[in-house]
Design goal:
Strand content: under 5%
Distance between the termini: 20 Å
Radius of gyration: 21 Å
Number of helices: 10
Helix content: over 70%
Order of helices and strands: HHHHHHHHHH
Number of strands: 0
Length: 198
């Protein structure tokens, strides 16, 4: 069925139970703000400490270092050669887009620190939470959207993965953005929304 039909079924069900939040109410805004704030602070706690997924972070770090050292005149040629050789020995698990983005951050900051990558993955995961809320709100209700977003932000596996230098956070954010684009298209199909959804 369409998203309209889903919302009609949900509205009929929620008429029997009073909704906790109203759209754009100050209670809702405060709740969402605190959720996203606490989710961010949880992830930033001891951000420089060794991660839980060190093998996965190692592979991404090798790729980022090779990109950072390449065409970098400040790096000795022997270090650049070793970095590229190490990268070529790693398995290519997915397109190294995140690693390339992190190498650009290394260049801007002028040094190589793995917690820069973690800041980026945390940002991606938190931004994904915005689209999780929008999707659930569009398909269900505001109350359901708050619960779904809270689960997304605070589920323990999500906390671990989003603090890790690996592409899962970027993948999840893009996945949720694409889902939201699809929901909007099927809500009101148009030629302008079709290429975005595609």
């Amino acid at each position: 069925g369409s998203t309209k039909e889903l919302r009609m079924l949900n509205d009929g069900a929620t008429e029997q139970t009073k909704s906790i939040f109203r759209d754009n109410s100050w209670e809702l805004r405060i709740c969402l703000f605190l959720m996203f704030l606490f989710a961010t602070l949880l992830r930033l706690d001891e951000i420089r400490a060794p991660g839980h997924l060190l093998d996965r972070e190692y592979t991404s770090a090798i790729f980022a270092r090779a990109y950072y050292f390449s065409n970098n005149e400040k790096v000795a040629s022997w270090r650049r050669d070793i970095a590229i050789t190490a990268k070529n020995q790693q398995p290519i698990l997915e397109p190294p887009l995140l690693e390339y983005l992190v190498s650009l951050i290394y260049r801007v900051m002028g040094r190589e620190e793995i917690f820069f990558a973690r800041y980026l993955t945390i940002t991606f995961w938190i931004l994904g939470g915005i689209f999780m809320y929008l999707i659930a709100k569009q398909l269900l209700s505001i109350d359901h959207a708050v619960v779904a977003t809270a689960y997304y932000l605070f589920v323990p596996m999500g906390l671990i993965i989003s603090r890790s230098f690996q592409p899962d956070s970027l993948m999840m954010m893009l996945f949720l953005i694409s889902l939201y684009a699809l929901v909007l298209y099927f809500e009101k199909p148009s030629l302008t929304r079709l290429p975005v959804a595609a």
